[in-house]
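User: Sequence in, structure out. Go.
Assistant: Echoing your sequence, followed by the structure tokens.
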Amino acid sequence: MPAETPPARKGRKMPQVLEGARTIFLRDGFEGASVDDIARAAGVSKATLYSYFPDKRLLFLEVAKAECLRQAEEAVALITADLAPRAVLTLAATRIVAFVLSDFGIRTYRICVAEADRFPELGHEFYESGPALVRQRIVDYLAQAVGRGELIIYDLELAADQFAELCKADLFNRIVFGVGSAVGEPERQKVARGAVEMFLARYAPRP
């Protein structure tokens, strides 16, 4: 069980501290990010920075949680029960592909993996603040679609996980390992469409 992370102190300068920290963590990684550089980027003194976050690890956790929550809320807002599965899944796939390939998503993933032995709670917090929220919302939508007879799914959690993995097909590994060139919009759309088509081929009712 990951150690419980104490809450950060709130205050007027919290937003600029988080934004400055985000800039430096993405540029230098967790290990390479210095408190001096973070304070400078945030436009605050080191004393002010330490008053909010006495531990750099806690600051990184807060940055990751805030960014993941923002991304998750944007994705969740697109998943509405008013639309048919193809429309909802296409919107969800587009958002998932965009996030997993984003500079923040990739760099945070690498940091969490690199620090997993020393700070296992980093990955836990990152997952719970974003991917887990989107996963649960997809599960909820799939349950509604099954109830309307639009999909046939017996294991909703497995189906949601399968969909998320389809949205990462090839592209995620290529970016993480630095193989090939940058992924353009046509490739992203191709993977998103392919994820939807394969998912529906498995779970949509036969005509």
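User: And one key feature?
Assistant: The longest helix spans residues 56-78.
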